[in-house]
Specification:
Elements: E1 4-9, E2 12-17, E3 23-28, E4 31-32, E5 50-51, E6 57-59, E7 62-65, E8 68-71, E9 81-83, E10 93-98, E11 101-108, E12 118-127, E13 130-139, E14 145-147, E15 150-151, E16 154-155, E17 166-169, E18 171-177, E19 184-189, E20 201-202, E21 209-215, E22 221-227, E23 233-239, E24 244-248, E25 262-267, H1 273-276, E26 281-283, E27 288-297
Antiparallel strand pairs: 1-2, 2-3, 3-4, 5-15, 6-9, 7-8, 10-11, 11-12, 12-13, 13-27, 14-26, 16-25, 17-20, 17-22, 18-19, 18-21, 21-24, 22-23, 23-27, 24-25
Length: about 300
């Protein structure tokens, strides 16, 4: 059974597992703000994990960096991609903790397809304003390394069906993808499209598994809200280290229950960035990168 850690503050409770540094539970006054998963078992659908050293997909598990071609294990065989990085199967190590904060660390690499070494540190802090998370990566090797990161929570607005939830976030473009492999085609405007949620409106039957960009940052933060018509809701904010946002309506083929939460993933780079180079972080030896985000009740 994987070790886990419980934080409490300001009416909030968070449970984080050592496996994948994953957020297993986030509640406010007993109400779920994210889709939880059972204690001790596998983590379904990457719920709550830290996806690093890349978010989303790498086509065919292949990429070139500094003139060298690398081949990663394909862990999404139905789409022939390498999905959500290398940190999620790992047991992270406790660095420090108290009632309201937790710091976990792990080392990624060198491994097949990623002959680099990154030291990752995830810090969770809970207070009256919600749960605040940061992930810092440091290149611990003597060569530059490609890097990207995102969280993977499934937000829960309330007890009404997801189709009735009111979603709002300010992004003026989205990344069109192939229907079969969800690999990038090109950036399109949201104007006149079903993906335009710049004003709050019901998600309806719209199926989304796309990255958005052209995000508005106000005072250095972007914000998203999803509200249940019954009056509850959950919000998320993130800093300018993440100019991309993956939204997924958690659609599943029957008989698996679908649309049980809204995946909201602020990303430092888009899908397949190891190949496109778009917003890919190049970490030089000894260099660090930090990304931060928060979740809170509405």
């Amino acid at each position: 059974m994987s070790t886990e850690f419980t934080l409490s503050a300001g009416g909030y409770t968070a449970v984080v597992t050592a496996r994948a540094a994953a957020l297993r539970i986030l509640q406010f006054e007993g109400r779920d703000l994210v889709v939880p998963f059972p204690e001790g078992g596998p983590i379904p659908d990457y719920r709550g994990i830290i996806a690093a050293p890349w978010p989303n997909r790498i086509a065919d598990g292949k990429y070139s960096f500094d003139g060298v071609e690398h081949h990663l294990p394909v862990n999404e065989p139905e789409r022939e991609t390498a999905l959500h990085g290398l940190a999620f199967p790992l047991d992270w190590t406790l660095k420090e903790s108290d009632a309201g904060s937790l710091t976990l660390t792990c080392t990624v690499g060198p491994t097949a397809g990623y002959p680099f070494v990154l030291e990752l540190e995830a810090q969770y802090t809970l207070d009256d304003a919600g749960l605040h998370t940061s992930v810092t990566a440091r290149n611990a090797a003597d060569v530059a390394a490609p890097y990207g990161v995102c969280p993977h929570p499934y937000l829960v607005a309330g007890s009404s069906p997801l189709d009735e939830w009111l979603l709002e976030f300010s992004a003026d473009s989205f990344l069109d993808v192939t229907p079969d492999r969800l690999l990038p085609i090109g950036v399109l405007p949201v104007d006149g499209h079903a993906f335009d949620f710049r004003s709050a409106r019901a998600i309806g039957s719209t199926e989304i598994d796309h990255a958005f960009t052209g995000i508005t940052f106000d005072g250095g933060l972007a914000r998203l809200s999803v509200r249940d018509p019954a009056g509850t809701g959950v919000g998320m904010s993130w800093d300018e280290s993440c100019p991309w946002l993956q939204i997924h309506t958690a659609d599943k083929p029957e008989p698996i229950p679908g649309r049980i939460g809204l995946a909201v993933e602020p990303m430092t780079c888009p899908p397949d960035a190891f190949n496109s180079g778009t917003d890919l972080i190049r970490l030089e030896p000894g260099a660090s990168h930090k990304a931060s985000w928060s979740m809170y009740a509405l």
